[in-house]
């Protein structure tokens, strides 16, 4: 393995410039419009890539787990942007001149992202094991 890869047009490796990634996560609280503003602000700040998350509640841990806003499945359903919204975010990133990246939280989410043309994913640290 060469240790080199790309996130869109951004080359990553020891001989490439530093790539700055903004973590958007679910801080948009499920609003595509808020996520658009986050994309624009990240671009204005000089960020190269902005990373979102795609959760499919039906593929995830049952709601018995408490999270910061209630049961986990309830919170994820309320603050998630679905695949149609993710495609809008990806297109907005293209227009803004910033790379879109997403963490899929299941194999099904990765498949959905691939279906809209996403070519790079970030594995969530909690999913590493």
Keywords, separated by commas or semicolons:
single chain, 129 residues, alpha/beta, 3-stranded parallel β-sheet, two-stranded antiparallel ribbon, 7 strands, 34% helix, globular
Quick take:
With 129 residues, the chain is of the alpha/beta class. It has helices at 32-44, 72-79, 83-96, 107-115; strands at residues 5-7, 10-12, 21-25, 49-54, 66-67, 70-71, 99-104.
Structural write-up:
- 34% of the residues lie in helices and 21% in strands.
- The protein contains four helices and seven strands.
- Helix 1 runs parallel beside helix 3.
- The radius of gyration is 15 Å and the shape is globular.
- The chain has a three-stranded parallel β-sheet.
- With 129 residues, the protein is an alpha/beta fold.
Strand content: 15-25%
Q: Tell how many strands the DSSP assignment holds.
A: 7
Q: Largest beta sheet: what is the strand line-up?
A: 3-4-7
Unreliable stretches covering 5 or more consecutive residues: none
* Topology order in helix (H) and strand (E) letters: EEEHEEEHHEH
Principal-axis shape: globular
How would you characterize the largest beta sheet? 3 strands, parallel
Distance between the termini: 21 Å
Overall mean pLDDT score? 85
Give the helix level as a range of percent.
25-40%
Structural class: alpha/beta
What is the oligomeric state here? single chain
Give the radius of gyration.
15 Å
Query: What is the count of DSSP helices, taking H or I runs of 4+ residues?
Result: 4
